[in-house]
Amino acid sequence: MTETILEVKNLEANLEDGDKILKGLNLTIKAGEVHAIMGPNGSGKSTLSKILSGHPAYKVSSGSMNFLGQDLNELEANERANLGLFLAFQYPLEIAGVNNLEFLRMAYNSKQKYHGLEEADPLDFDDLVESKLEILSMKNDFLNRNLNEGFSGGEKKKNEILQMLILEPKLVVLDEIDSGLDIDALKAVANGINAYKNAGNAVLMITHYQRLLDYVVPDQVHVLSEGRIVLSGKADLALELEKKGYDILNAKLS
Amino acid sequence: MPNLAERNKNEIEFIEQIFRASSSMLSNIPNIRSRQETAIKRVTELGFPQKSSEDWKYYDSQPILENFFTLDICEINKLDKEIIRKHRFPECSENLLVTVNGHFSKELSSTSLANKNISIIDFNDPDQLKTHPKEEEIINQHFAYKINQEESFFKACNTALMSNGFLLSVPDDTEIQETIQILHFSNESCFNQTRSLIHLGKNAKLKIIVSYIGLANSHFVNNAVVELILSEDACFKLDKIQDDTQQGILLYDLYARLMKNSNFEYNSLDLKANHSRDNIKVDLLEPGAHSDLSGFYILNKDRKAHNIIKVNHLTPNCTSNQLYKGIISDSARAEFNGEINVSEGANGTNATQLNKNLLLSNNAHIDSRPQLSILADDVKCSHGSTVGELDEDEIFYLLSRGIKKDDALAMLTLSFCEEIIQKVTIDSAKQHIRNLTLENLDTKIHTANTVHKLK
After folding, report:
1. Which of A50, A60, A93, A149 to mutate to test the interface with B (most CBs of B within 10 A)?
2. Could you give the ipTM of this predicted complex?
3. Can you give the pLDDT at residue B450?
């Protein structure tokens, strides 16, 4: 039987002291699967990514999130990451004074330590990073810059994918990884995602557009509306949405 | 609040002590001696600084008034050479100057300095001056400059009470490649008078890294005065590290006078003392002079740091920058009181000033006052200050990559001050400063945790 990576049941969540944003969301992702979530602005897509990865500003009021057999609600954000959950940010943060390569090594070693493994030898680690840079057609000088500081939009997104490739998570949540990318950067990012994908892990892409899905083909497409998944289908659902817009929801749901 | 009558009594007693002690501290060098005599007059005329004065508004002088410091027996103490080895930076092991309780020690300083085309003159050695007429002239011209108009009480105290400070002078057209390290140790419960006069000749270049190091476990004050003259085209870089014990008080007075096209960089790192007070004054006296002042203070517990800065643009076409950053936690307090003064006619001035603070607890406090006074027409000036906490989304970003919360907070805090640390000349000093910063963070990280546990 295929391993279940993520199982979300009847999830309700809100901003601390704020309105309810997720209103009974169900989602099951199995190993080897690629899922895409689409939906109108304000439907709760980004909120879902932040709640899964443990952003402290959001509160789960009911329902459950099970990741590889563990209750996510019981885990801090860094523990979720070390267990193998990776969120690629829509707006990666710029951190002055923190060297990109050092940051990558620190993140990698955090995971090693968490699993009781040895920290990486710096030279071996450099080799590992370089092999991943190639996949994304990134230059070496990326590593000596400060974390995302002064990076272009495309560079920031590639840097997220670089982190993903190095940390080898079990589930990646890509929050609008395709926004603000030119066609070359989009291809490089898609290359990275396809290089990462295997039968033992899974991808959840949050996107507004079909164009990423041309390069990374989803097994399932879900439409999120008003905090719930209201429609699921195969890859062709995304094409239909692209053509006709979210108006089709009304027709299909009535 | 302390009783006012009690306070006045202590202030009078403090001045009387200085008066009594000063008679035995008079120099054998006539030109120094005459200025000491003027200084003691200024001490009584100025009186102990009062809160009613703008520059002393936020300063609590009780710790100085309440602890009775020995004024007259701060002899040079024996100092284990091991301690010097511990505090010197490897890059500077051949270029070391040492003072103990304000007394310059030839024995503890590097002998090789004499070969480096730098003059070091002990203010307590009249014989040395006889063979150094140029240096004698520098002392005559610049030591205790305009002491009869001196406005700083503690600087006047220093002038009256200092005995063997030193002159460090670099001749014209001389570049000193290696960084000179100066270690000022305080190892007794004293009111120490540390004094230096630094003179750079025309087109001379020099870098100094100076540390104020407290070793005493009881209260002490290091009352330090630096006078600095940069001749035309001279270039001087000064890093000052305050590495005192928790009982230490550092009063630091720097007065720099900059001539045509000279360049002065100053970087202050307040890391440990009970409290410190920097009184920095830079006079840009001739066109093309440039001054870059920066600083970093990290304060925990009930420690305090005061930075009182005046940059005076007195002539056209000079440039200056001020950048001070602080991290304040627990119930610590900081004051940034920075002024840019542009005189009438000082057209073409370009000056910036910025003070940024990170407050990591509800009881931490900053009084930030960036000030501009402009009397010329054609100038470009900017000033500002910010106060904030660590950014929650930045913390989350690091956590989401598996990094532990304490490590994430330490990384972000270091990243806040790295801009200033990077300016330090010596690499091993940078690492030392980072280590001291992280030591300071220990108690703070818990505080920060509560601050960021989402309201």
Report:
1. A93
2. 0.95
3. 34
